[in-house]
Design brief:
Elements (H helix, E strand, L loop, with lengths): L4 E4 L8 H11 L3 E5 L1 H4 L5 H10 L3 E6 L10 H7 L8 H17 L4 E4 L10 H18 L4 E5 L5 H8 L8 E4 L1 H6 L5 H8 L3 E6 L1 E3 L9 E3 L8 H8 L7 E4 L7 H17 L2
Parallel strand pairs: 1-2, 1-10, 2-3, 3-4, 4-5, 5-6, 6-7, 7-10
Antiparallel strand pairs: 8-9
Amino acid sequence: MPKNLAVCSWSLQPTNPADLASKITQTGLHHTQLALDPLAQSEWNTDELLHSFADHNIHICSAMMTTIGEDYTTLETIKQTGGIRPDQHWEQNLARAKANAQLATHLDLSLISLHAGFIPQPSTTEYTTITDRLKALNEVFQSNNITLALETGQEHAEDLLRMLDLPNMDTVAVNFDPANMILYAMGNPAQAIELLKPRIAQVHMKDATTTTTPGTWGDEVPAGQGEVDWQHFFSIINTLPGTVNVVIEREAGDNRIKDIITARTIAEQYLEAS
């Protein structure tokens, strides 16, 4: 099995560290991107998690940070509440980033991904605010030798790349999620991955279909049943320098372990052919 193939911990809806370790094992995988919030907020015990992972030969390849107050009910609610845009949560989100960075350092992790939120138009006060906040987050993570990766989907690839090309943003990377491009109607993921590939540090493997009602969500579906061109997707991944984690994500459906195994089978076909 490819060493860079993993699963998002939150996709398995775990109730505790032992439950997470058991569910990861059921998928046939041995690597995970770990949501840090349960540990950072002391809902889970870090030593218990590490012991459970050691018993199941599970390794943490990267981490994920969520921001405060996100509401995914509609595209409009997440636009207003997502990422680091809400002014009322900024100081708390900065504090959360510092706690996440310390925890990731303790876990010997070097990559944290998050949603920045919808990127406003350039030459606006809000755009300057968002970029300044991203630079502040990046400084927190860089001071702990951690790469910050922004997840795609809530903006067009061109808008994300333009922001990443700003001064002092050269170390910020991309966590590329092809399904998010479809779910948010933010462009063709095949074109987006070509454009963003120099900045990609990790990818999420997730599939989706386009909405038939403009202004509403698309539908997340099991890998292979949506519109993502996996052959093209992996042809790009296989050309990237170094080892880029391919992390299977499933955030819908009632049989997630089965769906993750389906995605794993697809990924293994392309990764082993490289």
